[in-house]
Amino acid sequence: MARSRTDRSPRRRLKPARGHDLTSTLPDDLLLHVLRRLDTRTAVGTAVLSRRWARLRRELPDLDFRVSNMLPPRYHRWVLLHRDIEKRKGSHCLYRRDAMQLEFVTNIRRYERRAMRALTSSVDRFMDGDGSGVRGPRPQSVSRLRLEFFLTGNTGSMNKLIARSIDDWGVSDLEAVAKPIHYERSLHTFPSHGLCQDPRASCLRSLKLGCCVLPPLHEFSALTMLVLQDLPRSTTAAAYEGIFTSCRQLQVLHLKSCACSGNSDLVVVDAPGSGIKELVVDKCAFSQMWLRALPNLESLASLDTTVLFESESFPCLRRWNISQSIGAMIRSAEGLPLFYTGTSHELGWFLGCTPDITNLVVRFTGPLRWIMPSGSSSLLPPMLPKLRKLLVADEPSSWDVSWPRLLLETAPSLEILHIHIAPCKEKPGDKIPWRRTRLRHHCLKEFVVAGFEGTERQICLVRFVIGVSRLRHVGLFKKGQPRNKGHWDWEMVTEHHSWTDEEKDATLEQIMDGVSFSKHPVKLILG
Questions:
Q1: Backbone angles phi, psi at 478, to 5 degrees
Q2: 447: which strand partners?
Q3: Smaller CB count within 10 Å for the chain: N or C?
Q4: Closest CA relative to residue 400, chosen from 430, 427, 365
Q5: Residues in contact with 526: Cβ distance below 8 Å, sequence separation at least 6, in sequence order
Q6: Nearest by Cα to 460 from 471, 444, 446, 449
Q7: Are 237 and 260 in contact (CB under 8 A)?
Q8: Rounded (10°) angle between helices 73-87 and 106-128
Q9: Which of these, 407, 397, 387, 381, lies nearest to 465 by C-alpha position?
Q10: Which run of H or of E encompasses 482?
Q11: Count of Cβ atoms closer than 10 Å to residue 16 Cβ
């Protein structure tokens, strides 16, 4: 039964007077809160509403101009369709090459140029004021600027925005990433004076540059974090080396997918005066990077880039994430079998100059195992005497998966050992002829294997670890993988798998067969 409202006066909806703007009665703080929730292009567009809105949008501390936000869904469908056709073998029979270029590439480029014109217009309006042609008051302060743009030959407005944000607005965090037009190769170049007019007076602390010619950076005295991405092959080795030697205030340096030119694409880092504490070299097209001196370096990540140490001048280095893939299977001629090409290395080639490392992440991969036992005497001091935490990730199942024993034998203080075995299609390779050892690990507290399938070599590794340690629990999981927590930390994420009683008994019997050192019963956690 409906409630009666006869005892109360009916509610009356307030109607604004004609031509009256209720938002004008709201305080500036609330309107700024609304603007911060909008993308920068929309926030800039509010300037046409009134002078008050034009003033408010200039008080935004963060600016984000991204050309990708201006691309319609149809553009992404064109790109996906073009990639799909290119991946299919024989698809060129259905689409003539010239027709594909004309239809797909032309349409994709048209959308990119259209989006770039819209971005340029938005940037110009923001710098010029309310669109009336009269420059408005400059922003009170801009702490962060994100800029992403296509290289269409008309990027002068982008350079002006970057220079003004540094010189006039006091930006401290700047990201400028250029993107080539589809199927074109081009680079962004800054004016001859660099990013701005007065770098010495700038407040810039964090800088990211992508797909550009490297500008002068040595005068940015406040710059502590630098990320360089997709730098071209025309960049010389001396340009990279100069970052270490001339930008002494830097503390964090990331190089991602950068290339190098010259007869020898070798980058040598010899910077005893550098303040760099964190160095990431990720998929860079260098033949090698040699580290001679970085006395303040604490954390290193060398991902699919060969980084070698020439000395032990790294007293602060504690964390290293090393990812290395060596070797390939090639066919010299049609009809001939595949053959392997690659080199073999000992652990000392990588770890011989890093005795102070405490956390280590290792990803050694390739069609065949290329890491070899050391031929030197076992009486030599261990290479990693201070190592506490170790992850061996993505270990190919075709390798002799007991090879991490090499690491275990040179890390007497190890406390945590996690191993992740990745399935692969290659046939099992050669086994390592292990020798008897007197090694004892009194510090090892945690041992987990993910991707465990109970193969002979896997059983051999688990049996060895149990035999040389005082472990109470060992985790063996058929499914699982490490989840990265940054470059230097992780957590092992495992999935539950039901083991039959027969599998459990057989696995336990194989592992404990021959184990003599363990004085305490070991509980196997199977999952």
A1: -70, -35
A2: 417
A3: N
A4: 430
A5: 476, 477, 497, 499, 503, 504, 507
A6: 449
A7: yes
A8: 150
A9: 407
A10: strand 479-484
A11: 8
**For the chain, give me the number of helices (H) and strands (E)?**
12, 24
CA 220/CA 201 separation, integer angstroms? 8
DSSP, collapsed to helix, strand or coil, labels residue 122 as helix
Contact assessment for residue 143 and residue 171, using Cβ atoms and an 8 Å cutoff: yes
For residues 160 and 127, the answer to whether their CB atoms sit within 8 Å is yes
Token pair for residue 458?
């896997």
499 and 526 in contact (C-beta within 8 Å)?
Answer: yes
Contact 159, 189 (CB under 8 A): no
Q: Say what the pTM is.
A: 0.86
Cross-strand partners of 62: 144
CB 176 within 8 A of CB 196: no
Q: Give me Rg for the CA atoms of the chain.
A: 30
Cα–chain center distance at 512: 41
Tokens (6 digits) for 62: 């963060």
* Tokens coding 320: 């290293």
Tens of pLDDT, residue by residue, the chain (527 residues): 444 444 444 444 445 455 556 666 667 666 666 666 566 666 666 655 666 666 666 666 778 899 998 899 999 998 888 887 776 655 445 555 556 667 888 899 999 999 999 999 888 888 876 443 434 445 557 888 999 999 988 889 999 999 999 998 889 999 999 999 988 888 999 998 899 999 999 999 999 999 999 999 999 999 999 999 999 999 999 999 999 999 999 999 999 999 987 666 799 999 999 999 999 999 999 989 999 999 999 999 999 999 999 888 899 999 999 999 998 888 766 667 777 888 899 998 989 899 999 999 999 999 999 999 876 555 568 899 999 999 999 999 999 999 999 999 899 999 999 999 999 888 888 899 888 877 788 899 999 999 999 888 999 999 899 888 888 888 999 999 999 999 999 999 988 888 888 888 888 888 877 666 445 677 888 88
